[in-house]
Amino acid sequence: MKRKHKKYSRPKRPFDKARIDEEGVIKKKYGLKNKREIWKAEAKVAVMRQKAKKLIKASGEEKEVLFKRLQKIGLKVSSISDILGLDKTNYLDRRLQTIVFKKNIAPTPKTARQMITHKKILINQKVVDSPSYIVPVEYENKIELKKKKLENEKEN
Predict the structure, then answer these.
(1) CA distance 31 to 109
(2) Which helix (H) or strand (E) holds 105?
């Protein structure tokens, strides 16, 4: 069995008041379960930035591959500087939980999270039960609420 590694790193200064307040605001805005989800988003953005830094001297084709991959998940990037300018909020905006709330399928981010974990949300006719799922642009318009079965359908 392969050993799982953490997908984030904890803050270097655990009791930094400014960071704690900022994380509290982000946690409330996006309806996150805990601050670990913020740290995971920061780690994902850091990985994107590292890849962009390595590609500064690379050929245009390699850069285009990275740009296309990031554009596919909905991040608006067209140059290395755009990738270096990404923030954790850009990444958090692409989560299924946030998109369900912004499309007015759910009244609050917390309700959106609950609906997703209770398997009430469909993407392209398939149930997705992970609030942290990053929604590709092509599936953004295919998010819908699961329909209830009618009584006569249950009897058949």
Answers:
(1) 5
(2) none
Strand order in the sheet with 121-123: 126-127, 121-123, 143-145
CA 87/CA 77 separation, integer angstroms: 12
pLDDT (tens digit per residue) in 46-56 = 999 999 999 99
- Residue predicted with more confidence, 2 or 61: 61
Please write the tens of the pLDDT for every residue from 104-132: 999 999 999 999 999 999 999 999 999 99
Helix (H) or strand (E) holding 152: helix 151-155
Q: How far apart are the first and last CA of the chain?
A: 44
How many other CB atoms are there within 10 angstroms of residue 96's CB atom?
A: 23
Give just the sign of the alpha carbon dihedral 22, 23, 24, 25: positive
Q: How confident is the model at residue 7 (pLDDT cuts 50, 70, 90)?
A: confident
Q: Phi, psi (5° rounding) for residue 36?
A: -60, -35
Q: Where are the domains of the chain?
A: 18-94, 95-148
Site of tokens 């990031």 = 70
The third-level CATH classification (topology) of the domain covering 95-148 is 3.10.290
C-alpha span between 143 and 128 (Å, rounded): 10
